[in-house]
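hey so i finally got around to running the thing on that chain from the lab meeting. sorry it took forever, my laptop kept dying and i had to restart like 3 times. anyway pasting the input first so we r on the same page abt which one it is
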Amino acid sequence: MRLEKASRKAIEFACKNYHYSKSVPVNPVAFSVFNDKNEWCGCILYGIGATNNIGKPYGIMQGQIIELTRMALNGKQESTSKALSLSMKVIKKKLPLVKLIISYADSEKGHNGIIYQATNWYYVGYSTDTNIIINGQRHHRRSLGSKYGTCSIEKLNKNGMNAISIKTLPKYKYIYPLDKSMIELCNKLKKPYPKKSVKSIVNDAVTNPSEESGAEPTLTHHD
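ok and heres what got predicted. didnt touch it at all, straight out
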């Protein structure tokens, strides 16, 4: 198995065909994955994260943390966990200032982060977020902010958008240290890997609401 820098064409095809979101992140650090038969298997994408404060809970700055945003693979890879591990090694080599990787698994899609558990990431809890329904179509609030300059329900409705807000199901949050200095913090923050049903997690979220998620949910094709 090998990784190469992904072309824009490969990125768009993989995201639109192999990832549930059908969307392409902005300016990703992306790798094309090839198996031992030299067959293209899709792309793995990283990004800077949705907010400038993504590293704040871990005491690090923007540029020291990167988000795994897409595992858009077609199933031809012999090992998804190996593909992920290889990409993490490349990130560590090519981006030496990055100390931590963060990623999310979306319970709304039935995921609990099996691929992260298989590659020894640290589970650190869950977060919830808000989506907006406009004329029956669901949007992430940040994408609306980029498109219309606001994600305010009131302002959108003033512009005739017929918008309503809905709470998403929890997203499991995982982190992985690329720098030894982060290991102690990761161990302090880690929690038992989630095995609970979505219904159980939703009940927890209602009784123990956590912070709003600042990142797109991240899923793997095989997770």
